[in-house]
# Entry
Amino acid sequence: MVLLAAGCQSPESQPTSIEEVTEVQGDPGEKITPESESDGGSGNKESEGKPDLDPIADAQQLWKTSAHANAFVVDDQGKNNSCAQCHAPINWKPTLDDIPETCLVCKFELEEPPPFISENDWTHVPCLVCHEEDKKGNIQPEYTWLEIPALEEYASVETTTELCLKCHEASKAPEHVTVVVGGDHTGMQCTECHQPHSSTTSCDSADCHPDVFSSTDSIVGHDEEHQDVSCVACHDSAGWEVGPDEELGYWITYIPWVYEINVGEADTIVETGIIPFTSHEIVLEAPCERCHFSENPWGLEESVEAP
# Structure
């Protein structure tokens, strides 16, 4: 399952989608506090002027709208226990090959994990995956990683990008895509763009690019004719293909994709292609000829002139 992040259209005109987890804007090493959780931690000012909410309840309400609360999956063989390692860590049943070597000194055995976990039992990605609770059952604001759910063993992480990449990188699932932040966003933490608990993002929200759709300061390409074009489709610097996605309803970047399927001891099927995926390698420059070229497949004008 590939999770997409929206481009920087305004929230009214552009769908937003979901990707990572937790950190407040500012110091990359800063921990979430109840005060920072109440506004989402990404500079979101929507809560100003509204009654104060319990920060934990507020975070849980935001979580319910996220992909982390809707993470049930089944692979093409009808199995999902291995998927649960990221999609429902509390449900995940590891094998001896999955646990740290230090655990093996006890010489215990693990039962073969069930290949399938029903949707009714699926726990998705709840608070406890990224936050410990104290002896009284209170969720702690500091973020951490539930490394071995069966033992309730957590591993410390320095930043929330490190936390996000515990799942959002392809080493555990080669058919998935690792998010690489580059270009003008190099060094930024995930939650400097993504709301920590709903994980939504919009380039023109909060304190990032609030004036890109200003009626008094027209920017070339930021007009009605490009309302169905995500920002990354113009500002990607990775050189990915660009085009409209019928399901999403707007233009997006497409990442090259190679997937090897083992069908026997020596036989492998290699599938290649492209899949829609939001580029995180973003720069200011947006060359029009990327889409407006001779005999382009979308019937766009071959050349355009800046007003």
About this structure: The first strand starts at residue 145 and ends at 148. Strands lie at 145-148, 153-155, 182-183, 241-245, 250-262, 268-276, 281-282.
